[in-house]
Amino acid sequence: MADIRNNFVGIKSPNPFWLASAPPTDKAYNVERAFKAGWGGVVWKTLGEEGPPVVNVNGPRYGAIWGADRRLLGLNNIELITDRDLYLNLREIKQVKKNWPDRAIVVSLMVPCEEQAWKAILPLVEETGADGIELNFGCPHGMSERGMGSAVGQVPEYVEMVVRWCKANTRMPVITKLTPNITDVRKPARAAHAGGTDAVSLINTINSITSVDLDDFAPEPSIDGKGTHGGYCGPAVKPIAMNMVAEIARDPETRGLPISGIGGITTWRDAAEFMALGAGNVQVCTAAMTYGFKIVEEMISGLEAWMDAKGHRTLDDVIGRATPNVTDWQFLNLNYIAKARIDQDACIKCGRCHIACEDTSHQAITAVVDGQRHFEVIEAECVGCNLCVNVCPVEGCITMEPLAIGAVDERTGQNVSADYANWTTHPNNPAAKVAAE
Amino acid sequence: MATGQFKDGIAAGRLEPARYSDNFSDLHPPLDDHEALVEADRCYFCYDAPCMQACPTSIDIPMFIREIATGNPIGSAKTIFDQNILGGMCARVCPTETLCEEVCVRETAEGKPVQIGRLQRYATDEAMRQGKQFYERAASSGKKIAVVGAGPAGLACAHRLAVNGHDVVIFEARPKAGGLNEYGIAAYKTVDGFAQAEVDYVTAVGGIEIRYGQALGRDFSIASLSGEYDAVFLGMGLAGVNALRADGEDADGVENAVEFIAELRQASDLGKLPVGRRVVVIGGGMTAIDAAIQSKLLGSEDVTICYRRGKERMNASEYEQDLAAANGVTIRHWLQPKKVIADKGKVTGIELEYTAEKDGKLAGTGETLTLAADQVFKAIGQKLEAGALNGSGNAAPELEGGRIKVDDERRTSLAKVWAGGDCIAGGEDLTVSAVAHGRDAAESIHRSLTSNGRA
Q1: C-beta of residue B331 within 8 angstroms of C-beta of residue B324
Q2: Residue in A with minimal Cα distance to B66
Q3: What gap in Å lies between CA A375 and CA A385, rounded to an integer?
Q4: pLDDT tens, A13-53?
Q5: Hey, is the C-beta of B66 within 8 angstroms of any chain A C-beta?
Q6: Which of A159, A280, B1, B9 has the most Cβ atoms closer than 10 angstroms to its Cβ?
């Protein structure tokens, strides 16, 4: 039986599934329910400095996009950090940690970019017995206008500075949460690393407008006819988040820096993918907000079943296993040749592969053969692009089959070479030619 | 107090009055907005979609479904009406299980096709509810066209002609328009006077006059129309009914299923409509099913359909057969009528002979079976009343297999005369096919009048 106990920068939890700092972790009531449901840990919703709490809008905080059957694919929010009194939160954190000693409680923090502000709040958090802190350098809306959240996260020097203050003023592990609203996520990660952070967590939400009300031309979520960009999350952001996790995991300057993976994780499979790319554990929010806390049961059982099936005993057998396989385009093997193949028994003859290829790609799939509706790959035209696989509504019906070494690629007439050859040495690469001379 | 199911003979009021409205309510209630969106989401937007190929009127089904899915039911309705102005009725009565839905790739994938018919109804109902008219008539051509029969073929033809700027006069033998939509389809498929509402919707385009009580061969002839009008379209359907060819079929209680259905459709109080305690329906098509189910719904105790061949040869779709079974109708195969048994002129039973197919030919085996029956419905097909075609003694259009022969453009052998719907050879006895014939004939007429006319 797979052991999915998690040890993330010394913070132990019975499984790698934490709830991210967000509405589901704003108060004891919710967090207690989450722990009862089986969540391994939570990052308590971001606390601000002492004083009158922030206020939220009193209208819609969320916008969304949906897939078929109104399945929620992407959610955005304009909610701020906790709007509850600091001391109320601290008392609840302390009590919940006492009630659930085996679960991880990390406290998210966001105070002004002054050392004194951080110095003031850190001992208060430490006193609760919380396992660690997470620095919210990510929220893209509201707080960033006040010089916090992503306004800090977008300036690597500030990131380093604040991390350094925190490391100097607390014994608790420091997790630095990064914003994706930046051109190169490695820069703030390196800065956090330089400041001594114990880990990074990412991604926070992405700047977004989910939709526009076409009756009154108001962006959604709309407050009295006006809207503002909110933070985008949910399944739609997973690919963006995974790339950023992988970029940090494989960056020589941050290699080995623990990563808590966040961004659209909805199932055990999503979690396993993040961990394979280098995340030491994962944080979930939108899936819980969509379906309730019970989904963690599926995540636990799915992860265990997969690990058992594959013979992975602990999470360490999984974490980072895909990282070495993330590379630059220029190192991809140009001698690898695959062709699409359509399983005629599985094909339901919707023809989407044909029209996608015919209208928008390589004219490599038939529509009619011998007068019959028949979809078949024309190998001489197929560049192996995978579009047909992606538009086919039947999973597993179209597959990409690599050509065997020595086989003839009907498109080029060339034999498939056993040699690895990439762009850096390709004759069409002017840089390669220069290097050759 | 209701008469009860167990009263012998043919009697009205077998059920409690409230039961009738339940029994004859909408077979497939309309989809609400949510249901329509969920269902529309299931469509894969196939390339060169099989459903579209299977539709006799070639409605762009993936497009109209996509329009529903994107919150544009009015655009969706126009996509439908562009091909089939009777899309509302077809949404209700098409045997979609043997047309579009049979070939839906979701049927292939999971045995559950997209409910195309119900989605089509959703869109067309919305447009009709809003009274949305999509077509403006072209400038008047000055041409007048006579259409015989205000059924699906005639209405579709008239509408397309009117849109093209021609003036149309429809000659309708019955007191109401709609043809089989009004007189010949099971009541639970088209509730709340939809057939008439659709006639109003179609004729609202303008330029269409309907003259009621005007029958071909009685009140006018093809020749008289040809003389007076620039073109003639024949869409009068099949007024004749095939005979049982069984002894004693003139006994009281032996009736044509089509007439029973027509009477039922026109009845203002179903409780006053008499029906037998034991009903036998002879036939294997939709009419047989409609008559049998509706007999049951009127309170018949025992209804049996007898068909002379096997299940797979029945013209009624499998869905229709299942619907009959679900309503308590018994379907028996390999039985042909031999003799109607009567007592004092009233039917009391029917003797049937078992049949078998040998070398592709059907023959009686000699073995017989007698079923008790208070009422026997003949549903063994309608036929063209050929006599009406040359009622005035002028040349009649050439026939083929007892129906009017037409070419690809629905032209008959007579100059200036087109035909479509059930009355033509190769007609499929489907509302949707009739619509396609009428529409295509209208385009042919239009081409002929505008090009030849000017030349």
Answers
A1: yes
A2: A68
A3: 17
A4: 999 999 999 999 999 999 999 999 999 999 999 999 999 99
A5: no
A6: A159
Contact A70 B37 (CB under 8 A): yes
pLDDT at B393: 55
Q: How far is B99 from B54, CA to CA, in rounded Å?
A: 5
Alpha-carbon separation of residue B349 from A111, B257, B276, B373, B380 (angstroms)? 94, 17, 11, 4, 18
Distance CA B84, CA B116 (A): 14
Other C-beta atoms closer than 10 Å to the C-beta of A164 total 19
Instruction: Supply the pLDDT for residue A217.
Output: 96
A352–B42 C-beta distance less than 8 A: no
A139 noted as active-site residue: yes
For Cα atoms A338, A318, A201, give the angle at the middle one, nearest 5 degrees: 105
- Does B47 contact A69 at a Cβ distance shorter than 8 Å? no
In whole angstroms, what is the distance from residue B412 CA to residue B223 CA? 13
Residue A436 pLDDT exceeds 70: no
Digit-coded pLDDT (tens) for A184-216: 999 999 999 999 999 999 999 999 999 999 999
- Helical residues (DSSP H) of B104-151, grouped into ranges: 105-110, 116-129
Record the tokens describing residue A333, joined without a space.
């093997």
Set of chain A residues whose Cβ sits within 8 Å of the Cβ of B47: 350-352, 354-355, 367
Q: Are A265 and A283 in contact (CB under 8 A)?
A: yes
Mutant choice from B39, B43, B46, B70 vs A, greatest count of A C-beta within 10 A: B46
B111 touches chain A (CB under 8 A): no
Please report, to the nearest 10 degrees, the dihedral formed by the alpha carbons of residues B43, B46, B50, B55 taken in order.
Answer: 60
- Which ranges in A70-226 belong to alpha helices (H)? 86-99, 115-126, 150-153, 156-169, 186-195
Residues of B in contact with A70 (CB under 8 A): 37
Mean pLDDT of A150-174: 95
* Residue A16 DSSP class: S
Q: What are phi and psi of B308, to 5 degrees?
A: -80, -10
pLDDT digits (tens, 9 = 90+) for A373-428: 999 999 999 999 999 999 999 999 999 999 999 999 999 999 999 999 999 999 99
* Cβ proximity of A411 and A363 under 8 Å: no
| Radius of gyration of the CA atoms of chain B, in A | 23
Q: List, for chain B, all residue ranges whose pLDDT scores fall below the cut of 50.
A: 1, 453-455
Spatial CB neighbours of A383, under 8 Å, sequence gap ≥ 6: A362, A364, A411
Q: Is the alpha carbon torsion for B278, B284, B287, B290 positive or negative?
A: positive
Bridge partners of residue A207, in order along the sequence: A231
What is the ipTM for the molecules in this complex?
Answer: 0.85
The pLDDT tens digits for A274-315 are 999 999 999 999 999 999 999 999 999 999 999 999 999 999
Q: What is the pLDDT of residue B455?
A: 34
**Strand, helix or coil for residue A45:** strand
Check if B38 contacts A (Cβ < 8 Å): yes
Strand, helix or coil at B349? strand
User: How far is A235 from A263, CA to CA, in rounded Å?
Assistant: 7
Q: Position B230: which residue type?
A: D
Q: List the single residue in B38, B50, B109 with the smallest CB-CB distance to A394.
A: B109
Q: Phi and psi at residue B55, in whole multiples of 5°?
A: -80, 120
- Give the orientation angle of helix B73-83 with respect to helix B116-129, to 10 degrees: 100
